[in-house]
Structures are given as C-alpha cells and as structure tokens.
Amino acid sequence: MSGPVLPAVIAIVTGVAVGLGLFVPFVALSYRRRGRLSAGRLLLWAAALVYFWALWAYTLLPLPSRTEVQCAGTNLDVLELVGTLREAAGGPGSLLTDPAVLQLALNVVLFLPLGFFVRVLGGRGIVVALLTGLGTSLLIELTQLTGVWGVYSCAYRVFDVDDLLTNTLGAIIGSGLALIVPRRHRGMARVVGADQPRPVTRSRRGLAMVCDWLGFTVTVAGVAVLVQILLSVTGNEALMGEGRVASLVGAGLALVVWAVVVLATGQTIGDLAVELRYQSGPLPQPVARVLRLLGGIGGYGVLTAIPGAAWLGSLFAVVSVLLMLLTTAGRGLPGLVSGQHLVDTRQPRHEDHAGRS
Fold first, then answer.
1. CA 297, 298, 299, 304 torsion: positive or negative?
2. Residue 152 is part of which domain span?
3. In 3D, which of 274, 270, 307, 309 has the Cα closest to residue 292?
4. Which residue of 142, 145, 257, 334 shows the fewest CB atoms closer than 10 Å?
C-alpha cells in the first residue's frame, strides 16, 4: 500500500480510533450545550478528526529511512510564488494544467476544511482562521525543516514559504465558505433551551447503552494495554500470556468505576451523558442502584469476564437491546429488575418516598 492511499488509511483509522475514545465526552457535552445529540454535528466532528490526521499524514508521510534520507533545501523567497504563476501563464500550456500551479492549488485546497471547521465547529471568524492556518502550516513546515524535530539529521522535505502563503489562503477561503452555514448551527455556545427537559425515548436510552458499552470497552482495552506494557517492562512474560491477566485487570477496574458511579448517583456513565436517570420504585435506593447496575453494563461486564463464557455477555447484550426496544421509554432490563422508570434529569427531582423504608 503506497502513494496517496496509505496516508488516507492512516488518517481514517486514527481518526476513528480517537473518535471512539472521545465519543462519550462528546455526547455529554452535546446534551449540555445543545440539549441533544445532532447527527449532523456528530458527522462534522468525525470529519474534522479524520481531516486533522489526514493533514499530518499527507504533509509528513511517507517517512524515509534514517539511513537513506536525502537532505532537502529551503525556499524563503516570497516572490517565487508570483514568478511561478507568471511563468505558467506565459508558457505554451494551460495555466490549469501546469504542475507547479496545480501544486499551489492543492496547497490551498488542503487547508480549506481547516478554515471551514474553525468557523462552523469553533464559532470563530476569519482572523482566527488565518492565524490557525498560518500556525498549523508553520508547525508542519518546521517539523519538516528540523527533520521531525531531530529524528533525522536534516530536512527530508523542502521548507517552502509559498506553502505558508497558500495554506493560509486556503484557511481564509474555507472560513468564507463556511458563511453558507446558518449562524445558529455554528460554534459551541450553549443554545437557548438546552437545559429544558426533553422526551425520554428508546433512541435516547439506546444511545446511553452505546455510551456505556463503548466507554466500558475502551476502559478495559486501555487498562489492558497498560498492564501488558507494565508486565513486559518488568519481565513478567509468564503473566503476559495471551493477555488474559491484562484483560481481567481491565475489566475489574472498569467494573469498579461503573459501580462507584452508579452507587453514588444512581446513573451509569451513559445515563449521565444523555441526561437520564431511573427513579421511584418499591425498593430502597441502595438496593435499586445495585440491581440497576447488574441489569445493565455491570451484568454485561461480569459475564464477559468469565473465562470461556464470553458468549454469555453477548447473549446478555442481545436480551438487553430487545428489552430496551420492547419496554416503555426503553427502560429495559435495569428498569424491570429495579422496578424504576426513566426520567430526564433536567426535570425537577422529586423525593422518592416509595423507595424509603
């Protein structure tokens, strides 16, 4: 895999990986800033993540071998850009097919999304887009000039002041193009009515389940990787094995985190993200919270951690999804075992006398 394909694959894979790690905080922020999760903004932020990594992948990759690096020069003449355009305009071919002009145009196009995202997602205007484009381009050029900050003995790509100019121009144009997006859809400012209660729906409860599952899985994987690294550094190869010990430690820590959150608040991390909570019911609150945990992500985590019986966790997940779809407002298994029902946390909290003994 080579050419333009490899950087694209790297950008997509890295962007998706980072996006999965940031998904739960993004959902929580969206509900607090905008009152809900917008599919359009979710896609825009996902595109911005992939673009961010694509920007670096296409400007820095492929990295040469340290033993075969060929030192590149520099271009500090700001008037060379004008000369290039004049030469192409006076040549026998078309200005639009001249390789040098096409390279300049690609530099502009490469930074168009940056200016667009600065205005639409960041809510900032053309001055910030200009500074962001210039700063990002300068950082890339300096990374190339310094041989990735000393990794290589010299610059493996040309430091070109023309790139700074065309990249910055692209960011400015992108900021201007973003004006077609209505003002109410720009920026991260809190929208009016974001703190008002909204209907509790199955899709919202399903999103909470996705947040719990994804957050739990990312936590388990992250801790497992750290444990494997620690075992490798300390020379405990016997414990490394196939990663079973690391996975158990990760699952155990994730279960502790979710248990503490549920027992303290009555909500899982997914519930907190989408502003949902269970209330009322005939059982005392401590008992109801334990059952709510075991009827949700806690039960799933325990079953998947049983050696040789991971299928039980998968079966539990399928049953949980089905019950979410079949019960009122998606209260699902946690609501059935705890005897509680779902409400929006933004509505006034009432004392649950029925749950007290």
1. positive
2. 69-194
3. 270
4. 142
Whether 187 and 214 share a structural domain: no
In terms of domains, do 173 and 32 share one? no
Contacts of 126 (CB under 8 A, 6+ apart): 115, 119, 172, 175, 176
351 and 206 in a single domain? The answer is yes
Q: Which residues pair with 288 in a beta bridge?
A: none
Neighbours of 146 (CB within 10 A): 14
Q: Give the total number of structural domains in the chain.
A: 3
> Do 73 and 149 have their domain in common?
yes
Residues 80 and 117 in one domain: yes
pLDDT above 70 coverage of the chain, percent = 88
Residues 6+ apart with CB under 8 A from 35: 191, 193, 194, 195, 196, 198
Average pLDDT over residues 18-40: 92
Q: Give the confidence band of 28 by pLDDT, cuts at 50, 70, 90.
A: very high
Best mean pLDDT range from 92-96, 146-150, 321-325: 321-325
Residue 234 Cα distances to 210, 228, 238, 262, 356, angstroms: 36, 10, 11, 35, 51
Calculate mean pLDDT across residues 84-108: 68
